[in-house]
Write a structure and sequence with these properties.
26% of the residues lie in helices and 27% in strands. It is α+β, with helices and mostly antiparallel strands and 119 residues long.
């Protein structure tokens, strides 16, 4: 029982974040695949509560993809343009590419450990 409470505590703590700021990559017409040292890639620091890093992908009429990255105060859930996708994330430098964050991995690990303990 104590082990279960321990893992539940870890799970809860993994979702509690004290954020003073978030640092994101910022660029317009970003290179794909992403290269952090590309000359036009800069860092943006956002100190607003609920700030998020973003990656926006626009599918152009000629078949090209225009990728831009940055930071926003609040992540939009949808866009007016049907050919645009907006991806938001909430940890430093998370807008490099698609990946699983540590909180999600820790949640799944805790879930499987709890299942194993109960079997």
């Amino acid at each position: 029982m104590q082990i279960q409470l321990f893992f539940i505590g870890i799970l809860i703590m993994s979702y509690i974040q004290i954020i003073d700021s978030i640092t994101c990559y910022q660029c317009t017409d970003c290179p794909e695949p992403f290269i952090e040292t590309y000359p036009y890639v800069t860092l943006a620091n956002n100190t607003n509560f609920l700030a998020r890093c973003t990656k926006t992908v626009m599918h152009m009429a000629d078949g090209r993809r225009l990728v831009s990255k940055g930071t926003v105060f609040f992540c939009p859930t949808q866009t007016a343009a049907a050919d645009a996708q907006i991806h938001c994330c909430s940890s430093d430098f998370c807008n490099t590419s698609a990946h699983i964050n540590l909180s999600t991995a820790l949640m799944f690990l805790s879930f499987f450990v709890l299942i194993k303990i109960n079997l």
